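note to self — DONT lose this again. spent like an hour looking for the file last time. sequence + predicted structure for the chain T wanted, 431 res
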Amino acid sequence: MKKLVNYCSIIFLLLVATSQVKAQSVDVVIRENGTERKESIDLPKSMTYPLDSLLNDWKAKNYIDLGKDCSTAKINPLFSDSVYIDRLSRIPAIMEMPYNDIVRKFIDMYAGRLRNQVSFMLSACNFYMPIFEEALDAYGLPLELRYLPIIESALNPSAISRAGASGLWQFMIGTGKIYGLESNSLVDDRRDPIKATWAAARYLKEMYAIYGDWNLVIAAYNCGPGTINKAIRRANGETDYWKIYNYLPKETRGYVPAFIAANYVMTYYCDHNICPMETNIPASTDTVQVNKNLHFEQIADLCNVPLDQVKSLNPQYKKMMIPGASKPYTLRLPIEAISNFIDKQDTIYAHRANELFRNRKTVAVKDITPATRKAATAVAGKGKLSYHTIKSGDTLSSIAGRYGVSVKDIQRWNGLSSTKIAAGKRLKIYK
């Protein structure tokens, strides 16, 4: 507990990396000390995504062939508890992956009603696993964590929770900014698979420095370190995930078992008659620095790269626009288009610029102040000139009545364009 107190200021800043969204729940029968009890656990939100939503990404639509999903069968073989225990123990992992009735329930879900989603994710691994493994290895983290985005987003880079968590690793805006992920009206680095993966690796490493237990770390990734610390206090200082289990939110109770189940099914999918969908490896890509405002349509028009592909390769740009005028940004393109962009960049920046960038740098404001009215000219009247000093309460009508003249006469003699007068001023009176 003392170690947790030492890190309290860090924990206060490390906001929950993913949002807790009310999800579907599953009933689990738990056997303890010869007794049974039924418990309802909220499913991680990624387990509720239909397959159609996962196939909307440009990469999935263009590189995963739904017509060639090997021989994934509808029948899921059932195995005894001892088989599951043996298989989990043989996964080459640093992280503890114990077996119990809750873990089995999630294995059955992945290998059962979610088997088509598993077939998709096995294919999508070709896109993302090299990115995950490089960052995890650089930070010296267990490579088993590469399956954490399966729980977070089902490997859907466009996943957005109702609470605003975004991307493969489902960062909230606040946490993302702490770890260097820019978020504004035009740019959202949480959607960038590479930047978000390196930010997640750093986050996980710092959480492990606090807890020293990987199950607590990934539980904290789900519900936030503050919630984990409350559960530890309520469990009298216990720092074993399974001992604080009953003090955790319902979704977090299912989070670690789902993670263990994901590692199991991604390792032993063949034993459950699941086969990856056919995947064509995308062509190589490279990056170039952009130092002026650039719209995706300018690239698509002049570099012969489909607009959807530009969007898919640069998911961090929310409005198909790179605000390079504010600071240099990175643009990713197919490698054969890079030289084309460099050779034509001046032409590309100028192409349709007035049409695509309509925000004005300066705006002229037309002077609409009415022209000053021409002052009326005073005209001398007939008769003897006298002066009247205006007193409070006087009006032109009362003054005219007093001297036996008309209001218009007084206005003409004094060059007044209206009947407004001010106390203390003098008026010419001819009579």
